[in-house]
Input
Amino acid sequence: MQMQFEVQGMDFNRAGEAAAKIKKALQMVGMEVHTVRRAVIVAYEAELNIVIHARRGTLTAHVYPDRVEIEALDEGPGIPDITLAMQEGYSTAPPHIREMGFGAGMGLPNINRCSDKLQIDSAVNKGTHVKSIIFNQASGE
Ligand SMILES: Nc1ncnc2c1ncn2[C@@H]1O[C@H](COP(=O)(O)OP(=O)(O)O)[C@@H](O)[C@H]1O
Ligand SMILES: [Mg+2]
Output
């Protein structure tokens, strides 16, 4: 199964809609609760990063029996220093975005924490490609 959503930069009214739809679909096909939780965090943070930082993009979920792949592809400013961007609390979000409660600088660290495999490719003034793989497994708790 594959689902794809268009995401519009600065569209805060619809921010999180794609991640919510992915969540419902993963629950419907019976993915492990722990897998759904991790995939939804990745999808939500990647979706919000397009809304906050990019012009437009797509969020895609590829669902397999053993894993979920979340892919975010955008047209935007790109990330000049990915290592720096991955640090907890690092954010270039301007004050008016922070006043809305976004831009805590925890999105990429959370994506990293929730992913079994993560690849980020970015080109300045072109865009960013985030691909995360989450294997379907119970939490073991
Ligand atoms: N899709 C993107 N396009 C351009 N820059 C991005 C993108 N995603 C993340 N970044 C950059 O990486 C920084 C850290 O991202 P993140 O950890 O999600 O924090 P936040 O979104 O709260 O700023 C952002 O502030 C921004 O500078
Ligand atoms: Mg973010």
Notes: The first strand starts at residue 2 and ends at 8. The beta strands are 2-8, 56-64, 67-75, 117-123, 127-135.
